Automatic annotation (TrEMBL):
Names of required cofactors: FAD
GO cellular component: electron transfer flavoprotein complex; mitochondrial matrix
GO molecular function per UniProt: electron transfer activity; flavin adenine dinucleotide binding
Cofactor comment: Binds 1 FAD per dimer.
The organism's taxonomic lineage, starting at the top: Eukaryota, Metazoa, Chordata, Craniata, Vertebrata
Family per similarity comment: Belongs to the ETF alpha-subunit/FixB family.
Gene3D superfamilies in the cross-refs: HUPs, TPP-binding domain
Matching PANTHER family: ELECTRON TRANSFER FLAVOPROTEIN ALPHA (PTHR43153), ELECTRON TRANSFER FLAVOPROTEIN SUBUNIT ALPHA, MITOCHONDRIAL (PTHR43153:SF1)
Annotated GO biological process: fatty acid beta-oxidation using acyl-CoA dehydrogenase
InterPro entries: DHS-like_NAD/FAD-binding_dom (IPR029035), ETF_a/b_N (IPR014730), ETF_a/FixB (IPR001308), ETF_alpha_N (IPR033947), ETF_asu_C (IPR014731), ETF_asu_C_CS (IPR018206), Rossmann-like_a/b/a_fold (IPR014729)
Ranges in coiled-coil conformation: none
Domain named Electron transfer flavoprotein alpha/beta-subunit N-terminal: residues: 23-209
Keywords on record: Electron transport, FAD, Flavoprotein, Mitochondrion, Transport
Name of the featured protein: Electron transfer flavoprotein subunit alpha
Length: 332
């Protein structure tokens, strides 16, 4: 007999459906430490309901597997160790994820919307013949997600009817899962023989003593108003006083003032620090797309009409070459 649902048993049904979900989070790491965005992806996975498993694939990643097993909300850690997983190449990780999916039949597969996740999950989705949903900022239900469109100017709510939902998660939209309190089991998985269509040669990472841009609590960013790469020294001095990361607008990157790993915005990094200080940045929508979720925004610009003042909590209409050194000197 078919029963009509009232509000109470609709809630029970939602709970029941959520219990049957099971999500695989693909961990991003360097064999030694977990990349923080994985913790945000774990929180998103927990919101889907059901069990959360984490895949840790690497060359010598026992330490990371151990870290993840303690993360709150993770029930199982799947570990795959092989030389072919060096550098996290999507060509090698995809068959592993497909084999894991075949074994465990997850309802969702997700990763952080970082270069790693954006590189990997579309390939996984294509191989599973499902449409991926990228850069989600909210989970309405196990099949309905919110993501931004038009450089963050509109929100799109997407219902996904695929048998397995493949998602990347915007790190700044979900709290990081707690790194203690979990007690996950561990299991080994493998994908069979290596694909060997591509080879990891090397990576040259920028070394910096400053905090990482996407996870820093304070970010000082400079734009074309800085006029040269040398003048960014003003921002580095200020950042050192605040233990801040330094970012930049695309115009500053394109002009060659700073490297492109410092770019904040639609085609750069998405940040949401406690404090974002925009110096000599006009506030184009593509820049705002990367920083407008910051808790407090301070803008320093000599043009009172600059659009950045529309999103700023505090604005200083002034010449940056005068006020930035003054501000730096005033900070103890
Ligand atoms: C598809 C696409 C993607 C894009 N992605 C990004 C992105 O990811 N990130 C991004 O930032 N942009 C992006 N852009 C570029 C974006 O549209 C803007 O061109 C760029 O953000 C402008 O950078 P800016 O504010 O530094 O430069 P400008 O717009 O030239 O602004 C410089 C500001 O400095 C101020 N200024 C000058 N001198 C001083 C001084 N002495 N003291 C104080 N203020 C001063 C000026 O008043 C001005 O407001 C993208 C564009 C496109 C089309």
């Amino acid at each position: 007999m078919l029963r009509t649902l009232n509000k109470t048993n609709l809630r029970q049904l939602t709970g029941l459906i959520q219990r049957f979900q099971s999500t695989l989070v693909v961990a991003e790491h360097n064999n030694d430490t977990l990349t923080p965005i994985t913790l945000n992806a774990i929180t998103a996975a927990s919101k889907l309901g059901g069990e959360v498993s984490c895949l840790v694939a690497g060359t010598n990643c026992a330490k990371v597997a151990e870290q993840i097993s303690k993360v709150k909300g993770v029930t199982k850690v799947l570990v795959a160790q092989h030389d072919t997983y060096k550098g996290g190449l999507p060509e090698e990780l995809t068959p592993l994820i497909l084999a894991t999916q075949k074994q465990f039949s997850f309802t969702h597969i997700c990763a952080g919307a970082s270069a790693f996740g954006k590189n990997l999950l579309p390939r996984v989705a294509a191989k599973l013949d499902v449409a991926p949903i990228s850069d989600i900022i909210e989970i309405k239900s196990p099949d309905t997600f919110v993501r931004t469109i038009y450089a963050g100017n509109a929100l799109s709510t997407v219902k996904c009817n695929e048998s397995v939902k493949v998602l990347t998660v915007r790190g700044t939209s979900f709290e990081a899962a707690e790194t203690v309190g979990g007690n996950a089991t561990s299991e080994e998985v493998s994908s069979g023989s290596p694909v060997e269509v591509s080879e990891w040669l090397e990576q040259n990472l920028t070394k910096s003593d400053r905090p990482e841009l996407t996870s820093a609590k304070v970010v000082v960013s400079g734009g074309r108003g800085l006029k040269s790469g040398d003048n960014f020294k003003l921002l580095y001095n200020l950042a050192d006083k605040l233990n801040a990361a330094v970012g930049a607008s695309r115009a500053a990157v394109d002009a060659g003032y700073v490297p492109n790993d410092m770019q904040v915005g639609q085609t750069g990094k998405i940040v949401a620090p406690e404090l974002y200080i925009a110096v000599g940045i006009s506030g184009a929508i593509q820049h705002l797309a990367g920083m407008k979720d910051s808790k407090t925004i301070v803008a320093i610009n000599k043009d009172p009409e600059a659009p950045i003042f529309q999103v700023a909590d505090y604005g200083l209409v002034a010449d940056l070459f005068k006020v930035v050194p003054e501000l730096t000197a005033a900070l103890k």
